[in-house]
Amino acid sequence: MRDAEFFRRWMTAAAAAVEREADRLTELDSPIGDADHGSNLLRGFTAVLATLEAEPTPAPGTVLQLAGRTLISTVGGASGPLYGTLLRRTGKALGESAEVSDAQLREALSEGVGAVAQLGGAAPGDKTMLDALVPGVAALGTSYRAAGSAAEEGALATVPMQARKGRASYLGERSIGHQDPGATSSALLLGALADVAESAGAR
Ligand code: ADP
Ligand code: MG
Question: Are 132 and 154 in contact (CB under 8 A)?
Fold first, then answer.
């Protein structure tokens, strides 16, 4: 079972990964965007860590809902509301219980990813964060590490895609040949989850 501390560690690991990779995320957002994805997420996750320190989060669902709300209010770009929705909806699905199972987390994350698809109107193949989130969350049935790897592969697979949603879609065919920044940060998020699960001695 996973308690609130596990989820705070996940958010802390995600923030560290975003900090480490912020420059690369912004570089990926240069040719097919407006070069702010790294700075957007750095601002957002720095605020998430500050709120998690300031406010009590007794349950896994509380941690993710607070993190999601913070991302929505601090990230200006498209990715703020989308990641905020992912975490809020996942947190809502986890409810108020002090501990959740891996199966509950898997189910809740699927709901969260569904909410992202609904909000942004995108589907896999559109060259967005969903190209990492959908295969990543599907692979959670195998293991946390498999989820991280599938998300990374999903991010790499966005290179030959033409963007059909978000800012990159304005470029049409010229969006082909570049890796999607949001898919790349989604792989970081699921990679952070795998790291935390492994250090907690998971499957
Ligand atoms: P902005 O595009 O507003 O500058 P960011 O640069 O922070 O926001 O985030 C861009 C990323 O957001 C893209 O790489 C893509 O993965 C994701 N994204 C954009 N629009 C959508 C959408 N409609 N559905 C899913 N993801 C999207
Ligand atoms: Mg951008």
Answer: yes
Q: Which ligand is closest in space to the CA of residue 125?
A: 1
Q: 2-198: which CATH topology? A: 1.25.40
pTM for the structure as a whole: 0.97
Q: Report the alpha-carbon distance of residue 186 to residue 129 in Å, rounded.
A: 6
Any idea what the Cα angle at residue 69 is, between residues 202 and 90, rounded to 5°?
40
Q: Report how far ligand 1's centroid is from the alpha carbon of 151 (Å).
A: 16
Ligand 1 pocket member 112 (CB < 6 A): no
Ligand 1 centroid, distance to 24 Cα (angstroms): 15
Q: Where are the domains of the chain?
A: 2-198
Query: pLDDT tens across 138-193, in order?
Result: 999 999 999 999 999 999 999 999 999 999 999 999 999 999 999 999 999 999 99
Q: CB of 164 closer than 6 A to ligand 1?
A: no
> Which residues partner with 100 through β-bridges?
2
